[in-house]
Amino acid sequence: MRFDPEHLMYFLAIAFFLVAGLRQCLALADRLRGRRTEIAPQPLVVQPAREWVSRADCHDLRAALAQRLGKAEAELQELRDRRREDHQEVLRAGEERATRIHQRIDALGLKLTEELGVLRGELKRLP
Questions:
Q1: Which pairs count as long-range contacts for 77-83, CB under 8 Å and 24+ apart, including other chains?
Q2: HSE on the CB side for 28, CA within 13 Å?
Q3: How far apart are CA 77 and CA 69, in angstroms?
Q4: Model confidence over 61-104: pLDDT tens digits?
Q5: In this structure, what are the phi and psi dihedrals at residue 98, rounded to the nearest 5 degrees?
Q6: Residues 6+ apart with CB under 8 A from 37
Q7: Is the peptide bond before 48 cis (omega within 30 degrees of 0)?
Q8: Domains of the chain: which residue ranges?
Q9: CA–CA separation, 8 vs 69, rounded Å?
Q10: Interior/surface letters 73-91, b for 16+ CB within 10 angstroms, e for the rest
Q11: Which of 93, 115, 111, 91 is nearest to 103 (CA)?
């Protein structure tokens, strides 16, 4: 007997659906029996909350959170100001460096012009 790839594909598909269906039937039977399902591992530890919280506790918590938020915003503003100062300092240093480089290039150009003048004078003196 010869097996075609098409028949093999049909056989594997039917086997897959039979196994999946059997697994679902077993899961349904377990659920109907009332077995508990457990999700493992537990991602969170659940703790019971206090039954009530007074308004004063809420106001205290809100004031503490507002204070923490104010400190965080002040630190953030300080970091932003420091970053701006550093950025300005980097720009100033870049400008100074560019100025020094251009001064050196200009001085080199003047020196080169002088040397070329001397060489031309020497060339004119040659017979």
A1: none
A2: 6
A3: 12
A4: 999 999 999 999 999 999 999 999 999 999 999 999 999 999 99
A5: -65, -40
A6: 30, 31
A7: no
A8: 58-127
A9: 66
A10: eeeeeeeeeeeeeeeeeee
A11: 111
User: Which single residue is written with the structure tokens 């100033």?
Assistant: 92
| Cα–Cα distance list, 61 to 54, 55, 57, 93 (Å) | 11, 10, 6, 48
Tokens of 92: 């100033």
Per-residue HEC secondary structure of the chain comes to CCCCHHHHHHHHHHHHHHHHHHHHHHHHHHHHHCCCCCCCCCCCCCCCCCCCCCHHHHHHHHHHHHHHHHHHHHHHHHHHHHHHHHHHHHHHHHHHHHHHHHHHHHHHHHHHHHHHHHHHHHHHHCC
Amino acid residing at 48: P
Q: State pLDDT tens for residues 96-124.
A: 999 999 999 999 999 999 999 888 888 88
Alpha-carbon gap, residue 95 to 101, rounded angstroms: 10
